[in-house]
Design goal:
Aminopeptidase; 13 strands; 3 domains; 13-stranded mixed beta sheet; alpha+beta; Serine Threonine Protein Phosphatase 5, Tetratricopeptide repeat
Length: 371
């Protein structure tokens, strides 16, 4: 059985999450600056606790608590996996745990959708190492985000910015009160932006977004550096940055700014949509080099329901690695039918090299070229 704590009771669970203090969102939820819900086994003396936040889910305390574990299972199955999430339109449940003994209880807590593992990295920065102010390209400018900037009638504002402010902070006004960020502008268009994910005391964490057509120009590094520079000059002693281990672009930006890796950790995650979860299972198998298993996982996913075109392309890569020519071609065609149009990426995939001299490959290329 689980009980939801009232906000005024949140501080009771702080000792249980001491080993997860590198996840700043936990402190932000406890302090009330970030949206969230907290469930425990005992409201008076919590021994096990589960935090729901806009940045992820966190599980800590005593894992050998059968009543709590079953109650948590029911909540995850009937609420989170049913689509009732803290973060609007969330498509997955990403979980950080302590201690690792919780893994022995996953078969109880997640009986229908075993979580997958996603290696993650945590970086911190106490000094900016790039002279961002003198490296801004001609025609571009970097500004601190403020209401006046976003209200300019001739300024093209990505929908992600106000949406992210509202979701991560509870409201846009809450972001203006406690958060901050910088953006890069080109021709009255915001092309890169870096905002605070959350704050607690003299620590904060930030993220970065850059429009696809403006990437690989160093803009993300400059924009993030401006945000970190501001933070360190306005009372924050450390800025945090989380990223997936395979997100080389994010890692590069962090290291260019001056961040240093301080921790490796694991997200345990499952997708809310069952077909997508099977497809993600295939992706993890592919990354680990189990191509036959990946292909089997993907085919189960495709039979279960509709998924992103990306998975069809990844399945085609698995089939090509196994030299299953016709299956690879069929999957590539299906990826295109579902919306795949990244011709450059497809042409660069070495798995498809043995197809390049075939007529079928030329038809594939023709289908992806703009008309």
């Amino acid at each position: 059985m689980i009980f939801e704590l009232k906000k005024k009771e949140y501080t009771k669970i702080r000792p249980l999450f001491r080993e997860l203090d590198y996840q700043l969102t936990i402190a932000a939820v406890i302090e009330g600056s970030s949206p969230g819900r907290i469930f425990v086994d005992n409201p008076q003396r919590p021994n096990s606790a589960f935090i729901c936040s806009v940045e992820g889910y966190y599980l800590a305390g005593d894992p050998h608590n059968d009543g709590f574990n079953q109650g948590l299972c029911d909540y995850i199955l009937n609420t989170i996996l049913a689509g009732d999430t803290i973060r609007e339109n969330d498509n997955d449940l990403v979980l950080c745990i302590h201690p690792e003994e919780w893994l022995t209880k996953f078969d109880v807590i997640f009986p229908t959708r075993p979580p997958l593992q996603l290696p993650r990295l945590y970086y911190t920065c106490t000094e900016v190492k790039v002279d961002w102010q003198n490296k801004i390209p001609t025609g571009f400018s970097i500004h601190q985000l403020d209401p006046k900037l976003l209200e300019q009638k001739n300024m093209e504002i990505p929908d992600h910015i106000p949406s992210w402010m509202r979701i991560n902070w509870g409201s846009i006004d809450a972001f203006w009160r406690q958060g901050f960020g910088f953006c890069t502008v080109f021709n009255n268009e915001l092309v890169s932006w870096s905002l605070t994910d959350c704050v607690s005391g003299n620590f904060c964490e930030i993220g970065i977004r850059t429009k696809p057509e403006y990437r690989r120009r160093g803009l993300a590094t400059l924009t993030a550096a401006a945000t970190v520079d501001y933070a360190l000059k306005h009372g924050y002693s450390q800025v945090g940055w989380h990223t997936n281990i395979e997100n080389y672009g994010s890692i590069g930006v962090a290291e260019n700014v001056g961040f240093t890796k301080t921790r490796d950790y694991i997200w345990y995650y499952c997708m809310i949509d069952e077909a997508t979860h099977l497809a993600e299972t295939g992706l993890r198998s592919f990354i680990q080099g189990y191509f036959a298993l990946a292909l089997d996982d993907y085919e189960q996913a495709f039979a279960k329901g509709r998924v992103s075109y990306w998975y069809y392309h990844q399945a085609a890569q698995a089939a090509a690695t196994l030299r299953e020519k016709q299956k690879a071609l069929n999957l590539l065609n299906q990826a295109i039918t579902e919306g795949w149009r990244n011709l450059e990426y497809t042409q660069e995939c070495s798995e498809f090299d043995f197809l390049h001299d075939t007529k079928d490959w030329q038809k594939i290329i023709k289908r992806m070229k703009p008309r």
